[in-house]
Amino acid sequence: MNQRIRHLTVAFVVLFGILFMQLSNWQVVRRDALVRDSRNNTLDRERFDSPRGRIVTADGVVIAESVEKDTGEFRWQRRYPAGDLYPHITGHYTLSFGSTQLEHLERRLLSASTPGAVEVTVRDDLQRVAQAALAGRDGSAVVVEVATGAVLAMYSNPTYDPNQVAQHSGAAAEAYLEVLNADPEKPLLANAFQERYMPGSTFKILTTTIGLETGALTTASTFPNERRWVPPNTDNPIQNYAGKTCGGDLAEVFRRSCNIPFARTAVAIGPSEFVAGVNRFGLDQTLPFDLQGAATSTFGGTAGDFDNSLALLAIHGFGQGSVQVVPLHMAMITASVANGGVMLEPRVVKRTFADDALVIPGNGTVSSPIDNIVRTTPVRQWRRTMAATTAATLTTSMEGVTQSGTAACCLQIPGVRIAAKTGTAQLNPEGEKQRSHAWITAFAPAEAPKYAVTVMLKGTSEEISAGTGGRLAGPVARQLLVAALNGAQ
User: Fold this and answer.
1) How many CA atoms lie within 13 A of 321 on its CB side?
2) Contact assessment for residue 443 and residue 434, using Cβ atoms and an 8 Å cutoff
3) N vs C: which end of the chain shows fewer Cβ within 10 Å?
4) 388 in the same domain as 323
5) What domain range is 207 assigned to?
6) Cα 412 from Cα 425, distance rounded (Å)
7) 3-class secondary structure, 409
């Protein structure tokens, strides 16, 4: 009996020792990791009833703030004054459902004992132009500053109201989130940078670049006038958009957006060099963006995948097949042409400040003592996409698109030279009802580029599917470039 008691005593001592070590591990060794864990709401609840720092646009508009309440369990309420204009940038801050985007990424600064503030690169005036120009249509609009990579506008439809998620009633917030999560159009995701789409003929920017850099193309290259062309490894012919006859020199086929010349060019380049070329633009690599969940643009195959399927490579040469591009990434690609072949990292955080009380927004600026600045996001090069001489050739070809090509109808501004490429990405199999995305990507002024813009309208309606990138997305891009160039206040 005494031996059993001794064994039981030893067992209890061992178990208490294990328990003590585990408590020490959780309370001491892993304490900081637990505090930082986004699933831990305990610390959030302790700090929830405290003021939190503001998020402010580059032109001095407050887009997230804490306001004092007179009634209710909590004294402070997180508020988003612009409603559904910025949720994919600010995210939301809640007690029951955590935080997202800048509210999450800058949580330490915003919720410090002395709350800090975040200034974004986005201009409120341009963001509102983007919202109005999309006019409720599914899609996105992105404006990037060529010299810095700063995102000046980035709006996506569908969107949502973060105030409905941040409300203190957990049941009401949960009901709202359930509706958003059940929506097949996925309003919680920003299709400007968290989704990817078939790019259509905007991809011809890449094909032209790779052709010029590998020698498969020159400015003197010419293509026959033809309606159909059968690539290798198939009996199925490739056609130009709407079955038109198309051909001529490089400037002409780019201006008119003929499909067959770029299909021929992709085959002439070959799988290995073509895949290496698209990788120089960052396809199949994570975008270096400072918001959460950026999608990856994909080419849809490796060089080996195309070795025995040159027909598929031909289709990819004009942006069809399995090619998928993120709208923000297309804006970066276009900006790299404008920037002489240098692609910069996109960024949405401009500066952060140590003391929110010292930040004075309004009057088109954000002012604060210099010693209050914690961090200014630097300009960083991500990659070189092409030689400066290639960029100059592409700029000339892209100007032709707006002067007398597929964007001439809808993307002209008096006195401003604009370089652009349109895209109508056909989603339907041959013989089925037309369904397509409408794209345009552009920069201006062409001779001294300042702004790059990409607009993508999703083929979720008959209006979009029956139109073209130039006619539908072109007017949106025009409004954004006019506003950016004029400093629309």
Assistant:
1) 22
2) no
3) N
4) yes
5) 200-345+380-486
6) 23
7) coil
Residue 390: C-alpha distances to residues 346, 385, 395 (Å):
22, 10, 9
Residue with tokens 């072109």: 474
- pLDDT attached to residue 150: 98
Same domain, 338 and 283: yes
**Shared-domain flag, residues 258 and 320:** yes
Structure tokens at 135: 């006019």
Residue 33: the pLDDT is 59
Our count of domains for the chain comes to 2
Q: Residue 151: inside a domain, yes or no?
A: no
CATH number at residue 323: 3.40.710.10
Mean pLDDT across the chain: 91
Report which of 354, 360, 356 is spatially closest to residue 373, judged by C-alpha positions: 354
Residue 154 half-sphere exposure, CB side, CA atoms within 13 Å?
33
Q: Which of 99, 111, 140, 201 is catalytic?
A: 201
Q: Would the pTM count as exceeding 0.85?
A: yes
201 catalytically annotated: yes
Query: Closest Cα partner for 106 from 348, 336, 450?
Result: 348
Q: Identify whether residues 49 and 73 lie together within a single domain.
A: yes
* DSSP string for residues in 142-209: EEEETTT-BEEEEEEES---HHHHHSS-HHHHHHHHHHHHH-TT-TTS-TTTS--B--GGGGHHHHHH
Q: Residue 446 phi/psi, 5° resolution?
A: -60, -35
Q: Distance between alpha carbon 405 and the CA centroid of its chain, in Å? A: 27
Task: Check residue 42 and give its pLDDT.
Answer: 45
Task: Verify that 166 and 315 share a domain, yes or no.
Answer: no
What residues have CB less than 8 Å from 3, skipping those under 6 apart? none
Q: What per-residue confidence (pLDDT) applies to 39?
A: 53
Q: Where are the beta strands (DSSP E) in 270-414?
A: 342-344, 349-353, 360-362, 365-367, 373-376, 381-384
Query: 322 with 451, same domain?
Result: yes
List of residues 6+ apart from 151 with CB closer than 8 A? 121, 122, 142, 143, 144, 328, 346, 347, 348
pLDDT value of position 195: 97
370 and 305 assigned to the same domain: no
Task: Assign residue 55 the CATH number of its domain.
Answer: 3.90.1310.10
Q: What is the pLDDT of residue 418?
A: 98
Same domain, 65 and 80: yes
Domain-located, residue 134: no
DSSP 8-state class, residue 58:
T
331: tokens are 């804006």
Q: What share of the chain is helix, strand, coil (3-state, %, to 5)?
A: 40, 20, 40
Ranges of the chain with pLDDT below 70: 1-14, 16-47, 429-432, 488-489
